[in-house]
Fold this protein.
Amino acid sequence: MTSRGTPSRFLQSVLQNGVGRYVCQLKRISLIFSKNGQSSLGAREFIEEGVVDFAQNNPGTVVYVSPQSCRIPKIVAEYLNGNVKEEAITSKTSQQIVELITKLTNQSGLDIIRIRKPVHTDSPSIQGQWHPFTNRPLSIGPIGPQKQQAN
Amino acid sequence: MASGYIVNRGVLTFGIHYQHVCRNVLLTQTREKKRWMKAYTLLMERKLKIEGPPPPKPRAQKPNWDYHAEVQAFSSRLKESFSPELLKTAFVNPCYIQSEQERRQALGVDSEMAALVLGDNIQLHRQGLEFTKSFLSDWCRASFPSLPSMGVVAIVAHLTSHPVVCHVARNLAIEDLTMSAQFPVPDEILHSTFLAVIGALQESSGAERAGLFLRDFLVTQLVGKDLFEMWSVVNPMGLLVEELSKRNMALPEPRLTRSAGASTVLPLYFVGLYSDKKLLAEAPGETILAAEEEAARVALRKLYGYTENRRPCDFSAAEQPRAPGLQSFSSS
């Protein structure tokens, strides 16, 4: 689909995040995996080695680990702005899961859709936005090309 | 659809697969095309259209929830050290205590056996509100020294209004942790919970940390906002005359500086305000009166130092702005 048919948004941050202090936007991460399935092998390895380090390095994120009988192991990430992101980790290795979780931690919860402009500013003009009357001499009468001053 | 059947083991059954859930429960599944599925899904969709979507459930009633861990994560996420009891008290609203007591009475639980030992957040809310108002007024006066007290009051009222505070509270996950009788949490209750959290922070870590918290989360909501969006001034020209007479400057004289398309459907007039033959401000408008009023507003913005191209507020300093003359020292 073209960019007109798919959703898009402007570059923004949740609650002006970096302006004051930086708050990690990931509030909760749940690891759903199976105790016996082959697709959860990477998830089980990650839980053995990496999840405790991750939880200690990110004290602002609550990590839930829930073994269930499921065919596809999942990571459910919840962000401060209310968005919930589910990622399937079927047959991923422990390293890939670590990378995926780092990616999720660094995201803000805003939708991953086309960003219309790569920039945003709240003060677009310092010296004043140009309009057709800027730098013209004051005149009330009809507007025409400026007469060149004789040198 | 899987359902439990008691199976006669003497009969050979083809096409049905059995799965033992436990010794007495047997689930059956068939892998063939399920001819009832389409009718069932259409029926469910029709039911959804009639009844609407199911009501939202609070996060605490969904799986994977540990209140104590969530409260700890809340305080470390914001890089603040709250005292846990104060913070948990700040989230408890009086309506929740009331509804819990009614529920216990309705269930017939003896009030002595299971006493509800929860303090509510009214005291913390009052403290937080008072502190917030005083801190925000001080901050406004320090950053915009020429802004009159009416303007300061208007800005503080805007920052402590329900829409702004609830927007901040929702994006800081305070709604998840709030204990209240209704869900979704009404604005009024979310507002008082946020102020109670500020009160709890002030009691746990002191006024300076609470001030920094307010600066980082409430004051940043001023970014991109114009002064007269928050402060509704009915007569800007009258206010301008007052301001100029206070500063002993000549009264403003409006003059038409530029015009274009006077006889068309979209005329444009630029009116400039001159005080003692010097230009104060110039602004456009569709009619001359509109342009004059807009020029008065632009002049007021310049006088109060609240223009769009002013130097941005300093949020990187690890302490509040102090009045000049006092020595400032860095806090760890």
Summary: The CA atoms of residues 43 and 94 of chain A lie 6 Å apart. DSSP finds three helices and six strands in chain A. The first strand of chain A starts at residue 8 and ends at 9.
